[in-house]
Every structure is written in structure tokens, then in C-alpha cells.
Amino acid sequence: MQESPLLHRRGIIACLGFMEVIIQPTDESAAALVARIVAHDLRANPHLVLGLATGKTMERVYRQLVRHHQDSGLDFSLCSTFNLDEYVGLFPSDVNSYRHYMDEHLFRRVNIEPRNTHLPNGLASNLDDECRRYEALIQRFGGVDLQLLGIGRAGHIGFNEPLSALRSRTRVKALTPTTLKQNASAFGGEEKVPRRAITMGVGTIIEARRCLLLATGSSKAEVTAQAVEGPITSMVTATALQLHPRCTVVVDEEAAAKLKEKDYYRWIFENEPEWEEYR
Ligand code: GLP
Q1: Which of 227, 230, 246, 247 could form an SS bridge with 211, CB 3.0 to 4.6 Å?
Q2: How far apart are CA 38 and CA 144, in angstroms?
């Protein structure tokens, strides 16, 4: 049987297998680096399938990407996007929906085709069918090339709350009290935050060809150290990224505060040829 080009490509990358940590001085420079990696990959492949994340941390990345589009013509016209998650029960026009977030921060500010942007539909009458449809759609697009990720205070990626199976697929997930608290201010109170969301599973996320996680600020220091240097556990779903053959974690000094191997990470960024154009 002939090996598919996709498997072949994955095979090569898998041989390289590593997680890299890059420490930047500030939250701005960390976000700028993430945006430069996205811009680089998009220029190299205009048909890039980009996995997108939401949250405060990502706002800076999207601001930078908009700047790349305005200042140097970064072209989004052929790329497709898949967001990690969406709340159940919110209309796309709701200011707290992730569809609204993406329109505001990125989609309407760059030349992306709206029909190429995908988020799970949290209003679907049959949510399980919607989850299956979303998974199939990702497959139909050939899988995600580059997945952007933030990290929640509970250590989650997407809305993969503690005890999410590390092989889980897109599904409906009930949010933990920590997450409800973390997201309460946007809704004007914890009781107004939807209790459930549709999220790509951990298994879905780590199938992306490359993962790029951004964590900034002291509130993320503990959970970043757990995610990068702690044991792999479904209690902190970001630890599953350690299984990924090509994952880059970008942090600012504050989020890096509790990492044990900082000197090693700095040495790699300063010396490895892969990072030359980003230094
Ligand atoms: C939510 C999102 C996550 C995001 C996290 C962090 O839980 N579902 O994808 O990573 O928030 O958000 P922030 O960047 O605001 O800390």
C-alpha cells in the first residue's frame, strides 16, 4: 500500500519530536513572536488551515496579525480557520460569543473569506451531531496545519477541563467553577456564564501538524510550569502537548517565572538555526 503524502509528512515531523519553550521579555513581544510565526507559515502556504483560540491573551496576537496585514499585505484570502471552541446557547451576535470575538479581533479586519472561517455552532438543535460535523469538516480540510492555543487557569486547552480524556474528540463539555470564575467578568457575573461549551477534544488538538501555545502574565506561571515540565495528566490537559511532535510554547518573563529549565530554553532560542530569523 502506498503511503499518503500526509502520513509521510507527519512521519518526518514525528522523527524530530520536541517541545520548545521561548521566553520573551514582555507580553507584547511574546504575542509579536507568535504572530510572526503565523505570518511566516501563512506566507509559506497561503492555503494554511489555521486553528484559532480566544481569550485575552490572544487579543494581542490578533492585533499584530492585523498589523502584518495592513503594513506588509499579509494575505488571508486563501486560508481557512477552525476555532477551538464556542459556548452553548449564545447567538453569534452575542458580544460574548467566540464568533463575535473572532469577527471583532480578526476576521473583519483582514481579507479572510467569511465562509472559510469555522466555529462550532453552539445553537445547533442536536449538539452531538454538531460535534461530529465539526470533526468531519476539519478532516475534509486536511486537518489543522497550525493550532494557536492559550491556557486556562485550570490548565485547559480549548475547554478541555480537568479529567478530559487525552484522546477526546470534539464534544460538549461542562465548565468548571475555575473557568466560570475566570470568564465571569465579561458576562457581568459568574451566574451569567454559559455552563457548557463545544470544544475540540485534546485528541483533536494534538493532531494539528504544529501547536503554538502562548501564555503571558504571572497568573499563568504555575499552570505553565505544570503544562511544560509537569507529569502528563488529564487534570491539566495542556500537558498532553508534551506528546506532540512539534509544539512551541511562547511565554513572557512573568509566565516563565516557575519554569525550572529557563537557561536551557534561552540557549536553544539563541543558538538553534530554526530561530535565527526570529531573534
Ligand atoms: C478560555 C478559552 C481558552 C483560553 C482561555 C485563556 O477558557 N476557551 O481557549 O485559552 O480562556 O484565556 P485568557 O487568555 O483570557 O487567559
Answers
A1: 247
A2: 13
Residue 55: what residue type?
G
pLDDT interval class at 16 (50, 70, 90): low
CA 71 to chain centroid, in Å, comes to 25
Pocket test for ligand 1, best of 156, 157, 195, 213 (most atoms within 8 A of CB): 156
CA of residue 152 to ligand 1 center, whole Å: 5
Query: Which atom of ligand 1 sits closest to the CA of residue 57?
Result: 14
Residue 149's contacts (CB-CB under 8 Å, 6 or more residues apart) are 51, 53, 84, 157, 158, 205, 211, 212, 213, 214, 238, 241
What pLDDT is attached to residue 18?
Answer: 79
Q: Please give the average per-residue pLDDT across 146-166, as a whole number.
A: 95
CB 147 within 8 A of CB 208: yes
Cα–chain-centroid distance for residue 229?
19
Pairwise CA distance, residues 36 & 31, whole Å: 9
Radius of gyration of the chain (CA): 18
CA distances from 97 to 78, 101, 102, 178 (A): 25, 6, 9, 19
C-alpha of residue 58 to centroid of ligand 1, in Å: 8
Residue 271 makes CB contacts below 8 A (sequence gap 6+) with: none
Q: What is the model's pLDDT at position 9? A: 45
Question: What strands, in cross-sheet order, belong to the sheet with 80-83?
Answer: 18-24, 246-252, 210-215, 146-149, 49-52, 80-83, 117-118
Which atom of ligand 1 is the closest one to the Cα of 217?
16
Q: Is the CB of 159 under 6 A from ligand 1?
A: yes
